[in-house]
Amino acid sequence: MALTAPTGEWTDEQKSLRKSLDQHFEALNAGHLEDDAASRFNRDKWQVIRDSGVLRIPFDPQWGGLGHDVLTLVYTLENLGYGCRDNGLLFAAATQVVSAAVPLHKFGSEDLKERYLSRLIDGEIISAHAISEPNAGSDAMAMITTATEDGDSYILDGQKIWITNGPIADVVTVYAKTDAGEGAAAITAFLVPTDTPGFTVGEPIEKLGLNTCPFCQLEFRECRVPKANIVGKVGSGFFILEHVMNYEILCIFTMMAGEMQERLERCIKYAKTRQAFGQSIGSNQYVAGRIVDMKIGLENSRKHLYDTARRFARGRSVTTEISMAKLITSEANVASALSAIQIFGARGYSREYGLEKALRDSVGGPIYSGTNETQRVRIASMLGL
Question: What average pLDDT does this structure show over 203-226?
């Protein structure tokens, strides 16, 4: 069954870019179950991601990018999610695109771009962003990490946690309060090399899924960061973060849609060939109904993701749309993964088939990038409630 996307006509260049990822899937999938079991970030596979050019898609050719818009990015990333079963690696790649390169590309100074952007887009150096804190997750405004002005520098003090790519990152976009007051204008973004004195990278955190993408805690103790490393302007961090989170949700959850497509096809094939009580299990209305629900969840997710990407590409507000896309896709993916295990039965429950890993990976979707509870609150607020 061919992977298709539900939006308009695509150019030959877009189709070719999307199709070009196919040649890398075998290498990306090799040993992915073993890497997951060992909680191992695979550097060889990171090189495959670099070679694929996927990290370069939305950036200006001046810095080594391919110069495409966000719609082309999600169109291509859906195929990456379809073909690559290493969800942790995909999560790390999405973080690489959005955590430092996206804000630097749009808001960074020429000096900061000259020093970092080309290497980020190439994947030569790995990045992360530090937003969540032990007592401030989806409520980013509650962060207490401070940045105190001191001459031509700022001194960072505080802790960040659940940092995707943290243990392997070379640079981190750190969001901190530069003003003792409250509100959006109190937050500033800094690009901080991880070898900066006073910057401590914690040990990898053991977790349920996405095990090939390491998370950790970061600590800042009198960590001096030059003013030249501010991304954008002092006080613009919250608005930069909003832009970044739009990209993050579109990238991660469009790959998730590709994953759901592959899983759907796999379940259809299995339901047609697996025999029970003298007939294919697909002829059982309960099994068929699960597959139908998987299809509905997938297409609903795709519609919201692509509609939101088109709106975002036109420069329009997507506050409500991005929350709905995140909610719908993350919950559809969990339901899809559960259904696949039920359809495959004992085989789905075993590690050999990779479906239990996909379920473990899916459970994080309603939590990261702003919990689904927070997304529902945001949508209610936009409705005037």
Answer: 98
